[in-house]
TrEMBL record:
Family: Belongs to the binding-protein-dependent transport system permease family. FecCD subfamily.
Localisation per UniProt entry: Cell membrane
Organismal lineage: Bacteria, Pseudomonadati, Pseudomonadota, Gammaproteobacteria, Pseudomonadales
Any Pfam family hit: FecCD
Primary localization class, coarse: membrane
GO molecular function: transmembrane transporter activity
Cellular component GO terms held in the UniProt record: plasma membrane
Topological category with respect to the lipid bilayer: Multi-pass membrane protein
Keywords: Cell membrane, Membrane, Transmembrane, Transmembrane helix, Transport
CDD domains reported in the protein's UniProt record: TM_ABC_iron-siderophores_like
Protein name per its UniProtKB record: Iron ABC transporter permease
Length: 329
């Protein structure tokens, strides 16, 4: 059965995403009027408008929307598995580890593996370490988060060491992976993210019922025929896949994985796991943040990772000061 509130929320978010996407295509150093944008999208625009929309703005819009959706979906999965609002890929160090491995493939450390594969490797290693260091608690409790924070700090330090020990040109090439940027993303990494999201999203939806059941006490979950260990493992694998591919496209994007699921949860019915709403909200946040970064100091561009961090930090403080970190409270 289709839950009416969820359907309405998802439709409204989808419509908002379309509007934000049109704004991203229209506004910038060169503002394209709505009529000109429509003509360009229909293939009848001027050469200048066609170049700006097709070659410059559409690729970064696609990269931003996919990255935001992937990070938000990974964050929603992680928060649900850990039953903790703070358990997101960025907080527990997956972003930093994926960034460190991606940077290592760029700065000439002798590693010739492509950044997407290296980012996935870093995300997997960080999760495995956090899971192992947290002991019997697995993905539950604060030990998992504390272990992830330590791994993230170490990964960040390793990234800075690599950047400070290579030639300036190599460091500049790796810089976007350290702050989060949608500028000049490679087609291959965006295609890999699109494929990963096309695979991960249906799999996440298939886990939805089990994820909702995980919010109940574990004995109740088991009595309903759900295997918590298998569900957590599947959710972790999906989170690793989505986070690693997103970082390979845009670098570490601050707090999208925290903000988007929280906003989606606020709009949705209590007790649900709003995977679709979280993904749509994440895409909206990324598109708007990228647009704001292009417009605020135009023609200078503020990397999208800095914009999301500035916008999301007050909200993170509000969560810490006003709400229990337990996802069920």
């Amino acid at each position: 059965m289709i839950e009416k509130r969820a359907l309405m929320v998802n439709l409204l978010l989808a419509a908002l995403l379309v509007l934000c996407s049109l704004a991203s295509l229209a506004f910038g150093t060169l503002t394209i009027p709505l009529s000109g944008l429509v003509q360009t999208l229909l293939g009848n625009g001027s050469a200048m408008h066609d170049f700006v929309v097709t070659e410059l703005r559409w690729p970064r819009l696609l990269a931003g929307g996919l990255t935001g959706a992937a990070l938000a979906l990974a964050g929603c999965l992680m928060q649900t598995l850990a039953r903790n609002r703070l358990a997101t890929p960025g907080i527990i160090g997956i972003d930093n580890a994926a960034t460190a491995f991606a940077v290592a493939s760029v700065v000439g450390t002798g590693i010739s593996i492509a950044p997407p594969a290296m980012a996935l490797t870093g995300a997997a290693i960080a999760t495995a370490l956090a899971f192992g260091l947290s002991g019997a608690t697995g993905t539950r409790g604060y030990r998992f988060i504390i272990a992830g924070l330590a791994i993230g700090a170490i990964s960040g330090a390793i990234t800075q060491v690599m950047l400070s020990s290579v030639a300036l040109d190599d460091a500049n090439a790796a810089y976007p992976w350290t702050v989060g940027s949608l500028n000049a993303r490679t087609t291959g990494s965006v295609q890999a993210l699109a494929a990963g999201l096309a695979l991960g999203y249906p799999l996440a939806l298939a886990l939805n019922r089990a994820l909702v059941t995980l919010q109940l006490p574990e004995p109740v979950t088991i009595s309903l025929g759900i295997h918590p260990g298998r569900v957590r493992l599947a959710g972790l694998v999906l989170s690793i896949l989505l986070t690693g591919l997103a970082v390979a496209v845009a670098g570490p994007i601050g707090l999208v994985a925290l903000l988007a699921p929280e906003m989606a949860r606020t709009l949705s019915r209590p007790g649900t796991v709003p995977l679709t709403a979280a993904a749509l909200t994440g895409a909206i946040l990324m598109v708007l943040s990228d647009l704001a970064g292009r417009l605020m100091l135009a023609p200078l561009e503020i990397p999208v990772g800095i914009v999301t961090a500035l916008a999301g930090s007050p909200y993170l403080l509000w969560i810490l000061l006003r709400k229990s970190p337990d996802i069920n409270q």
